[in-house]
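Sat 14:20. Reprocessing the chain from the morning session after the first attempt stalled halfway. Input below, unchanged.
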Amino acid sequence: MTNNNPIGLFDSGIGGTSIWKEIDELLPCEDTIYLADSKNAPYGQKSKDEIIALSIKNTEFLLNQNCKIIVVACNTATTNAIKELRAKYAIPFIGIEPAIKPAALHSKTQKIGILATQGTLNSELFHQTLEQFQNTKIIEQIGHGLVPLIENGEINSPEINKLLHNYLKPMIEANIDYLVLGCSHYPYLIPQIRKILPKEIRIIDSGEAVARQTKKVLLERIGLNSQPEKGKSVFYTNSNPKVLEAILKNKYQIIAEDF
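Finished this time. Tokens:
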């Protein structure tokens, strides 16, 4: 493994591109390979064993591309499978978890909301995190239906808007002052969410923190890419590439193949 090998990322679809964008901005000279397992989205409704099996499959794909570090750009895969991945492989893994800690530490109302998948909210890792903040009331909401709509490119659809109103209204009524987005797909919904939430409620996602941690681990264990020019990014998808093309504005190489 050399410092000039690419960074690998995988998600249950296009959502993890929100994490990729943060990494690409912080580490512009790094080559990246992104795997969108859209064929199997959403992960949030699958069993733990299914999520682990899919995460291993995705990891093997990225290892075959000679990736030097793997970012699990999916909350559900992180909370259900990263322990197993780290036990099975020597390569460093960076996970993505709901940013409950900064929200709970900065909340003045001591009430925060979290919008996440069922797989994340039901996971052992998520409940271990909750135990650290027992003085904060956490209003949990499963984002039923949001990921499939995003995967279909219906980010600005009336269906998305209706679901968000239904999910956020109880949180607003509970007087939250922070909303934590617990799925890497959800940052693409921030414009719609901002229209619904009162302006004093802050929205937190994990993208910047994941990028900083990726850089930190690379510096400690492998090293950054030494090339001076902008890195290359390649995206793989096992589903219709059109939504991924739209998200990336047709600026990058997208390879559609079955995996």
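DSSP finds eleven helices and ten strands in the chain.
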